[in-house]
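Just scan this pair:

***
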Amino acid sequence: MTQSLSDPDRVLALAYAPVDRRRALAALFGLDEALGQVVRGARDPLLCQMRLTWWHEALSGLGGGPAPSDPALVELIEAGVVPDMSGTALAALVDGWEALLEPDMTDDDLAAFAEGRGARMFTLGAEMLGADHPALDDAGRGWALCDLARHSSDPALSARALAMAGRALRHAMDAAWPLRLRALGALAALAQGDTVRGADRLRPAGHPLRTLRALRHRLTGR
């Protein structure tokens, strides 16, 4: 069964992925959503760290032990993500999310989050889809920072994250994205639009104008 996602942007982007890789990409997106729920739903940083440690260990052991119980982990196996890529490679996503546990987020912490979550997820996604793009890592960093800005309840943090995202995404659409990567490119295009609008004018996920922007990317690669 294809992974069920809660983010309208990623549901839309999946429609742009090659049919034969759509379930695997959905499983990767689903893993990221599961990790995000751990961090965003936590009130106790120590408990959150323990839960992320569990995820890291569970991902690292995928394919080499008893079948996992969590639906997101089961889907990674059933969708063929593992063994196509190692559980250790997937576990690296946890490191990015851990950067958000710092009590006072510095720009270095935001950069570590953007690298470990965003750049890593886009790299894994591109490997899964079998293509590349010169701005892939920067696009992933910018997307992760914009997603953080959308979910943060701290206006100052949202503004800082969007400013960093703007620098990362400045050249994300200079070169057309290959057809096989337009699911990822659409996320970057939407994030680039967020950096232009600013933290106080973000359109909600699923907004018709965001859908049109994603469609434009699907047709043009930019």
Summary: Residues 107-129 form the longest helix (23 residues). The chain has a mean pLDDT of 95. The chain is about 70% helix and 0% strand.
